[in-house]
Design a protein that fits this description.
Elements: E1 2-4, E2 14-15, H1 29-52, H2 57-80, H3 84-106, H4 108-113, H5 120-141, H6 144-158, H7 173-181, H8 190-212, H9 214-226, H10 232-245, H11 251-268, H12 273-285, H13 296-305, H14 309-338, H15 351-358, H16 363-373, H17 378-399, H18 405-422, H19 429-443, H20 449-476, H21 478-487, H22 490-503, H23 505-520, H24 525-542, H25 547-561, H26 569-578, H27 582-592, H28 594-605, H29 618-621, H30 623-646, H31 655-669, H32 675-701
Antiparallel strand pairs: 1-2
Helix pairs in contact: 1-2, 1-8, 1-20, 2-3, 2-5, 2-8, 2-20, 3-5, 5-6, 5-7, 5-20, 6-21, 8-13, 8-17, 8-20, 9-10, 9-15, 10-11, 10-12, 10-14, 11-12, 11-26, 12-26, 12-27, 13-14, 14-28, 14-30, 16-17, 17-19, 17-20, 22-23, 22-24, 23-24, 23-25, 24-25, 25-28, 26-27, 28-30, 30-31, 31-32
């Protein structure tokens, strides 16, 4: 977190860590140019291997980790070192890490041939790789995650000396290092595979769409739809952040982009600073669960479960809508409680005019959704979506130089025909690259084209920088996965949950929720999900919870942890914009997200909410009837929890009314005889009572 100074003042920038990302730019002078060039090289490597897939997976993972370490130490040196010697040391250490990753490529065949029988050089390189990953993560994110992973390494080395059932059979130094640094269940496991393929590509996709003007489109549409309603600015924040989540998948990124506009707007129209920032933090964190471009966890989940990414997207749709509906409802109630009005019609743009003017920006996103649901791989869909986005950006810059709209229409129609011609037998990478290459050449000789090419180049470098925190987290958490796969320690924790769940599934879910939130207060969402899913999801599956549901349960509470003090990453990101204490923002965000905390419990007991079989109501209502009933019940529960948290419906709620609403919500979440009936009856009673109170309040106020 930036505490003092500026990015262009060497030696005057003080950071506690870079968990929220690096400051603007790449550092001072020539060192900044070096980082910028390496960032472009990193992004280019990722694009080339995604397009042509000419390298073995293990090599791609190794080079990816090498680039991560190189840029991590180099950029940290650029932004924190007080002298050129310090910056040179950072780049030297990073270069050693890059060589450790490159080792996987240079000796790929030899490493396969001597698998299980490492040389002294193999052990030295593997050990050095682990040290650099741990130190780089510590400098990026602080001590919490390295300490947790380090404790797992210690258990791996010395766990044989613990009493049963915590002990294991013991493993030698060479076994541990080989498993960690050269297999596919350690540093180069599923998380880093996903980071090296899907995540990087979708970071680029989101970055280019933002560059094309998607944020402005989202903002204008949100303002046009909700700006004039009661408490409109806060509803704009929720809706815009939800739309932003469809292309970003990063909560903190949403806060610092959309929040720059929405938080001051909410404050201007009467919302408290902490509440305004809490609304943006809550809505922005939902970006990680909003299809189609969900957070990195969704890709890891798909790989872990061995299902198509589209399966994860379909399962996440209704819960994501419910999450944003809960945030929308909370700000509506808060506005009613404090009499906050919307914006004047003259102050807001027309949503229709915004869509008519920039509808074409939605084409890459629409193509992405179509391909994901048609069964194309995320890598292929993301590549095509990225190519379409680049074509739109370059095409728009080319048409700026045309003197009439007729010429612009001819250009776009011609470009569409060319794309159709090269894709009549399916999209192949060489024709796609050829079209983009032709647009690049034309842009280079047209007015404004060179500036657009420079902006695209900047997006490549910025995307590489943005990928560092996610990538390093994916690398270090591989140490936990490696320890669990070799020692089998996960079965111990799983046994506890199964034992607890045999008496009460609800208590097993609560234990899993607490574990996820506890982990998430100190580490990012990705490792939180990976650890919780590895420990608890298999146990929940044995208790009858569908595997995808148990994984999504762990995922949701990892996100909720980012809203929960003392860490509350989203609140920390919103604090400088709102000029408010991060802890106050964190507590407000938890209150706003209260309804979101219960959604996972709803979809465990009603799996039809995630379009999964096994819902108890399906036998009576049919599958889609069960989906409709579960959605309706979840909406009612969300409405009740919102009333409890805000203390308002038609008028302010008394303590007894809040207690009644809370009891009704718990009944709708429960799984006991007549629980739904009791919940709906109590809901009708409290709503009618509030409606009856409203005229009296109005008369008294008059």
């Amino acid at each position: 977190m930036l505490q003092a100074g500026g990015a262009d003042e060497p030696g005057k920038v003080k950071f506690d860590n870079f968990e929220h990302g690096f400051p603007e730019g790449f550092g001072p002078g020539g060192w900044g140019h070096l980082a910028y060039a390496i960032g472009i090289a990193f992004a280019t490597f990722q694009l080339v291997v995604a397009a042509w897939n000419f390298l073995p997976s293990q090599v791609v993972r190794g080079v990816h980790v090498g680039f991560l370490i190189l840029m991590t130490f180099g950029l940290i040196g650029n932004f924190t070192a007080k002298s050129n010697a310090g910056r040179a040391a950072g780049w030297l250490i990073g270069s050693i890490g890059f060589l450790c990753g490159l080792y996987q490529w240079i000796f790929y065949a030899d490493l396969i041939a001597r698998d299980g029988d490492p040389t002294q050089l193999d052990l030295a390189v593997g050990t050095l790789l682990g040290i650099l990953i741990f130190e780089g993560t510590r400098r990026l994110m602080g001590l919490a995650l390295p300490l947790m992973c380090g404790s797992c390494i210690l258990y791996w080395f010395f766990g044989q000396y613990l009493p049963a059932p915590f002990n294991h059979r013991g493993y030698g130094f060479d076994q541990i290092i080989t498993h960690l640094s050269y297999g596919t269940e350690g540093f180069y496991g599923v998380p880093i595979y996903v980071s090296a393929t899907y995540i990087f590509l979708f970071i680029l996709f989101g970055s280019f769409l933002e560059r094309a003007g998607m944020i402005q489109l989202f903002t204008d549409v949100s303002l046009g739809l909700f700006g004039s309603t009661r408490g409109g600015p806060a509803k704009v924040a929720v809706f815009a952040s939800g739309m932003m989540g469809t292309i970003s998948g990063s909560g903190v990124a949403n806060v610092v982009t959309v929040g720059q506009f929405t938080i001051p707007l909410m404050i201007k129209f009467g919302y408290r600073r902490a509440f305004a920032a809490g609304v943006e933090a809550t809505a922005s964190m939902g970006g990680q669960i909003m299809p189609p471009v969900m957070g990195a966890v969704a890709f890891i989940m798909a790989e872990t479960l061995g299902v198509d990414y589209s399966v994860i997207v379909k399962a996440a749709v209704i819960p994501a809508i419910l999450y944003f509906a809960s945030a929308f409802w909370m700000v509506h109630l808060e506005a009613g409680k404090h009499g906050l009005v919307g914006m004047k019609r003259a102050e807001i743009p027309s949503a229709w005019k915004a869509l008519v003017a920039r509808w074409y920006l939605a084409l890459p996103l629409a193509a992405l959704v179509y391909m994901l649901f048609e069964g194309f791989t995320p890598l292929y869909a993301g590549s095509v979506g990225l190519a379409l986005t680049v074509a739109l950006i370059l095409g728009a810059s080319i048409t700026l130089g045309f003197s009439s709209n007729a010429l612009r229409y001819v250009f776009w129609i011609g470009l569409a025909l060319v794309v159709a011609a090269v894709s009549h037998n399916g999209l192949e990478i060489i024709p796609v690259v050829s079209v983009v290459g032709a647009l690049v050449l034309i842009s280079a000789i047209t007015r404004g084209g060179r500036a657009t090419l420079a902006a695209c180049r900047d997006s490549l470098a910025d995307s590489a920088k943005s990928a560092l925190t996610v990538g390093m987290a994916c690398a270090i958490v591989g140490s936990i996965i490696g320890m669990m796969t070799q020692t089998g320690v996960g079965t111990i924790f799983g046994g506890w949950i199964i034992g607890l769940g045999a008496k009460s599934l609800f208590m097993a879910l609560v234990m899993t929720m607490l574990l996820s939130i506890l982990l998430g207060t100190g580490i990012p969402t990705i490792p939180t999900y990976i650890i919780t899913a590895a420990l608890a999801a298999p146990a929940l599956a044995k208790l009858g919870v569908a595997l995808i549901v148990s994984h999504m349960f762990a995922f949701y509470y990892g996100i909720m942890a980012d809203l929960s003090p003392p860490v509350a990453l989203a609140a920390l990101a919103a604090a400088p914009i709102a000029k408010e204490n991060p802890n106050k923002i964190g507590w407000e965000a938890m209150r706003i997200a209260l309804a979101g905390y219960v959604i996972p419990f709803v979809f465990v007991y009603s799996p039809s909410l995630m379009l999964q079989p096994g819902d108890p109501m399906a036998a009576q209502l049919g599958f889609y009837g069960a989906v409709a009933f579960a959605t309706f019940k979840a909406l009612v529960a969300i409405a009740l929890f919102g009333m409890v948290a805000i203390g308002f419906l038609f008028t302010r709620l008394t303590l007894l009314e809040r207690a009644t609403a809370f009891a009704a919500a718990l009944c709708l979440l429960g799984d006991f005889l007549f629980s739904d009936t009791a919940g709906f009856l109590l809901t009708v009673a409290i709503v009618l009572w509030q409606w009856r109170q409203r005229p009296r309040t109005a008369v008294a106020a008059a």
